[in-house]
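Hi team,

Filling in the usual template for the complex we talked about on Friday. All components are listed, including any nucleic acid strands or ligand strings, so the model treats them as one assembly.

SUBMITTER: L.P.
PURPOSE: interface mapping
COMPONENTS: two
RESIDUES: 585
SEQUENCES:
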Amino acid sequence: MDIKISVKNLEAFYGKNKVLKNISIDIPRNKVVAIIGPSGCGKSTFLRCLNRMHEVVGGTITGSILVDGEDLTKTDPVLIRKRLGMVFQKPNPFPTMSIFNNVAAGLRFNGVRNKKILAPIVEKSLKQAALWDEVKDNLEDSGVNISGGQQQRLCIARTLAVDPEVILMDEPASALDPISTSKIEELIFELKKNYTIVIVTHNMQQAARVSDFTAFFYMGELIEYDKTTKIFTNPSNKKTEEYVTGRFG
Amino acid sequence: MDNPETQVNIENPNNKSNSLWISLKGQLKKFLSSHNIGDFIFERLTLLFAVLVFLLVILMGYEMYVGSKISIDKFGWSFLTNSVWDPVQEIYGALPIIYGTIVSSFLALVISVPLSIGIAIFLSEVSPDWLEKPLSFLVELLAGIPSVVYGLWGIFVLVPWIRTDVEPFLSEHLGFLPFFRGAPYGFGMLAAVLILAIMILPIVSSISRDILRSVPQSQREAALALGATRWQSTKIVLKDAKSGILGATMLGLGRAVGETMAVTMVIGNRAVISPSLFDPSYTMASVIANEFTEATSEMYLSALIQLALVLFVLTIIINAMAKLLVWSMERKLGTR
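RESULT (copied from the run log):
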């Protein structure tokens, strides 16, 4: 199997409090990996370790995270975040920017200013995020004057515009209505052709629908990691079975 | 609900005044049953208080107008354009005083606002927790120091320093500009500007800090996750906070325009218009504070009250402008 991200002995802390215990996991290229588990199990923290956002809020990590063999923990976080894009739980477009500028924001951070270069990338990203047809006539409108589902797809487009290798999604549909949710799920299905996707979700049906592999986290530990079909039909661990059948969590 | 009118007819078909009374009672009953009496009183009471503030402002404006009637009748608009303020000859032109007020406040803002924004950014975006709290406390402490203490410090520390070091330095190196010419008195526009800048620093920086903090963390994370540097993500936050910081600036301006004691103690108190920052000047608040005890003639008193009226209107204009700016900016951004 072609491994994109290889996490070895990852431990994450908030102060002295250990929130992730000795996680080792391999994430294959161009697949969708779902991270499931009850609240507080460390699944979001794990995701935020991957693009070094965990450190933004004052956390620390030990262990190694290899992307294509390069150790992320020894690289400049700013560079890492261009390679591993992130979509957050709540849509967070920049309210002071137009739709166009929201998508172009990441490129502008990289110093791309020429609108002739930006425009085709913005269009391509919005098309990839299945938002182009809905907003193409009002690209100059504010990024917050569209619906929540559209905002989230705008955030996905914004992430795609930077041309990342991996997309990290932290419960991207949990704040959305069912129709917007299914649009996001279709999108994930499309995106995995070109990107490696790690998605945190508390919705087990969603994990079963969109992912190829599923990792079950519990109390900061990786309990089980396998093909999604195996996790949901025939898990090896008793805790996993209890969780996926809805007996706790 | 029974119709009160049919009730009246049944009870007392002939007695006219009685029927009117009962009809009123019925209407009151109907009104009370559809309104919560507590809420009704609460709403009207709060409305009353709100109207009271409004009335107070109107009343103050009116009183000042009446008090300055003699002076307004005599000088008219020339009060604002004439640059001679001479109580002995009973000629009152407020131009140099208005000039002194506006220039000292504006220059104080020019110095103070960039510093304040820098402080606010450090406190809200950069500083580690253990440093942020004591530093915020110190900044807020500056706001609590009485104006007269600033004035005293100005007289004994700031002014001598300006006289012996700052003004000679400026006239030596920047003396080709008209702003830095003349005798180094110490007392003058420069001292007033510096002391005002220090005095509005805490209010502008602590409000700006609160505004920056109110920008959701998700905005910073959104920027960082796109590969923004810390400075780039701070720029995003600043953009979100722009209108709020503008409001803070306007509050600072309002404070500077009205500041009396400290300015009076260091500005030199002479009603002249001079381009040089070394020269003494005068502000409206200082004139009023200094001269109201000497205002023995009716005309003098009236002119001082007119000066107060001008200051009053000026602060209203500043506040209205602040609101308009914030409002137009919010509309442009499409946020509520």
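MY TAKE: Chain B has two domains: 4-71, 78-333. The first strand of chain B starts at residue 85 and ends at 86.

Thanks, L.
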